[in-house]
Amino acid sequence: MSDLSPFRLKGRNPDVLSCIANLSNDEVFTPPEFANRMLDTLAQGWATSHNGANIWTDSSVTFLDPCTKSGVFLREITARLIKGLEAEIPDLQTRVDHILTRQVFGIGITQLTALLARRSLYCSKQATGEHSVASAFENDDGNIWFKRTEHEWHRGKCVFCGAAAGTLDRGEDAETHAYAFIHTANIQGRMAEIFGDDMQFDVIIGNPPYQLSDGGHGTSARPIFQEFVNQAKMLNPRFLTMVIPARWYSGGKGMDGFRTEMLNDQRLREIHDCPDASDWFPSVQIKGGVCYFLWNRENLGDCKVSTYSGGNNVSQMTRPLLEQGCETFIRYNEAISVLHKVMELEESPYKAMVSSRKPFGLPTTFKGANKPFSGGLKMYQNGGVGYVADSNIESNRELIPKHKVFIPPLGSGSDSFPHPILGKPIYGEPDSVCTETYLVAGAFDSKSECISLISYLRTKFLRFLVLLNKPTQHATSKVYQFVPMQDWSKTWTDEELYKKYGLTEDEIAFIESMVRPMELDLFDQPAAG
């Protein structure tokens, strides 16, 4: 066994774990500085619930990282415990052995990450190796477990994670990415099998894999991070903290049930939200940002929501996870008062006017004729304008003779602000249709009503309300949930809307900081395709 000098060093600079490249956008390594931010939050939460007690001075607390990659959480926990338990266990070797054998545990997500985590924690890829700082293990794995797990296929998909057999059923020599923690219907039994019947974890912490390919169109992927959260809750720890993509706030693919459960769970006591994920994870792009949360089994109540920008905490508020009448989480604390003022007027929702995707049954790939022809309809399509026979229109035929407003179903995908939020709306005259490239944002009997709607869609006020329910670039009808209906006999400006809803200077300033002006002619049209 090696000497224990690594644990006597005041600092470790440079830290090799801050230099490791990510395995993929699905399996993102956690920077040490960020891991320590989460541990600070955990320690504060523990102290609040335990009369100011210091978690790092408690030799009985057990920790599990069920999705360990670099081992950074376990390493930093161990470093804190080594310092905190010095008075109780003065001998350094005895203290290290106690912590490594009885307090910190991990499950590797792949064979490679299990080896890396052991190297980080034990200073050796084998817990019993010559250079290991531990002297009390009788097995090479120590308390960082990994065993190849297989997917359970049914009709081409895994019943546990939804992965596609065509993508991951690659033979015995390749990693399966069938993560043991979520590939079981009996997580208590799985933990007993791995760590023993009597093991109960006080703290579960980690950065789970985010998604796996589900074999859908293009690069379709199914989120799986929520499965780790759900399994961790099933183990009923005292505290649970994980960093996950923030797109769960508004639901989405495979997220609706998870969102509902999370937002109705009063044990979710803190959310630390970073809309621009590059602030915390500089080397990856995670659309919609990321968050980490603190779940406290024994302390129910409202949630403290903290927002970060540029690495700094710019806003903090303790509030319900669900505002009255809302089904989604309002990300920005500054938006709560604005939303309350809008909802107080109890106006009809504008969302009802917006069509579903593919409003006329025409896919994005459908291309019309280049020139008009007798009996044809003008069609707004990807790349411009074409012309299509009336007989091709299968859906919403009653909209054909109407004056219409079309708007793209994709908005800005940027996570930095200000940005436009929505694509530019365009006017669609009678006898016009569109492909899936657009939604119908409204259909009227007159052109002037379209002018009114387009003026409304270009306001920062409307686009700010859209932002509250738009975690990614997708801008389907559901993102308009908080947008109220207006009088379509006039054009609208932000100044009029700010006055109508009684917004304060601070509220207006926040909206202006988030939404870029939309410069357009009310009748901007795409070029003929």
Task: Please give the structural blueprint.
Layout: H1 5-8, H2 32-49, E1 63-68, H3 72-84, H4 92-102, E2 104-108, H5 111-122, E3 144-145, E4 153-154, E5 157-158, H6 165-168, H7 187-195, E6 203-206, E7 211-213, E8 221-223, H8 225-234, E9 239-245, H9 256-263, E10 268-274, E11 290-296, E12 303-309, E13 312-319, H10 335-344, E14 376-381, E15 384-389, E16 403-407, E17 426-428, E18 432-434, E19 439-444, H11 447-457, H12 460-467, H13 494-500, H14 505-514
Parallel strand pairs: 1-2, 1-6, 2-3, 6-9, 10-12, 14-18
Antiparallel strand pairs: 4-5, 7-8, 9-11, 10-11, 12-13, 14-15, 16-17, 16-19
Helix pairs in contact: 2-3
What would your notes on this structure say?
There is one protein chain. The chain has 529 residues and is α/β, with parallel strands linked by helices. The protein has a domain at 346-514: Adenine-n6-DNA-methyltransferase TaqI, Chain A, domain 2 (Alpha-Beta Complex). Residues 8-13 have low confidence and may be disordered. 26% of the residues lie in helices and 17% in strands. The chain has helices spanning 5-8, 32-49, 72-84, 92-102, 111-122, 165-168, 187-195, 225-234, 256-263, 335-344, 447-457, 460-467, 494-500, 505-514; strands at residues 63-68, 104-108, 144-145, 153-154, 157-158, 203-206, 211-213, 221-223, 239-245, 268-274, 290-296, 303-309, 312-319, 376-381, 384-389, 403-407, 426-428, 432-434, 439-444. It has a 9-stranded mixed sheet, with helices on both faces. Strands 15-14-18 form a 3-stranded mixed sheet, with no helix packed on it. A 3-stranded antiparallel sheet has the order 17-16-19, with helices on one face. Helix 2 (32-49) crosses helix 3.
